Amino acid sequence: MNYNGVILSGLPGSGKSTVIKFLSEYFSWQVYSIGEEWRSIWKSRHPNEEISFEEFFRNTSDKENVEINKRARKIFEKGNVIGDSRFSSLYCRDLPLLSVFITADLGTRANYRNT
């Protein structure tokens, strides 16, 4: 199968951003981050960070998550995109995208979070 995009998912600190940066430079493809989209929404709703991003995200509705993933799908439909997402691969499974799960052991992820 010929792929016209890549969706990366994985645990925090597993290396998604590093791989996305490398692949986007190698292929000269657009980068889309559903995590960055959520952070942008959080910052617009809580500019003083009165609640943490984690708390904000835990309280997002199913409807909001569906809408974000629909927007992600529209971006992935265009092709030539590399992105990170937790669930977009479910919404995009009929598209010619390579879906990759990245993992790293707990020690590596913990070390990353402390840098």
Secondary structure class reads alpha/beta
CATH superfamily: P-loop containing nucleotide triphosphate hydrolases
- What is the straight-line distance between the termini? 39 Å
- What pattern of helices and strands is seen along the backbone? EHEHHHEHEH
Order of strands side by side in the largest beta sheet?
A: 2-3-1-4
Main sheet? 4 strands, parallel
Textual characterization of the structure:
It is a single chain. A four-stranded parallel sheet has the order 2-3-1-4, sandwiched between helices. It starts with a strand and ends with a helix. Helix content is 50%, strand content 17%. The protein is α/β, with parallel strands linked by helices and 115 residues long.
How is the topology of this model organized?
Elements lengths: L4 E6 L5 H12 L2 E4 H12 L7 H6 L3 H16 L3 E4 L3 H4 L6 E5 L3 H8 L2
Parallel strand pairs: 1-3, 1-4, 2-3
Which labels suit this protein?
alpha/beta, Rossmann fold, four-stranded parallel beta sheet, globular
Briefly say what this structure is.
This protein is α/β, with parallel strands linked by helices and 115 residues long. The protein contains 6 helices and 4 strands.
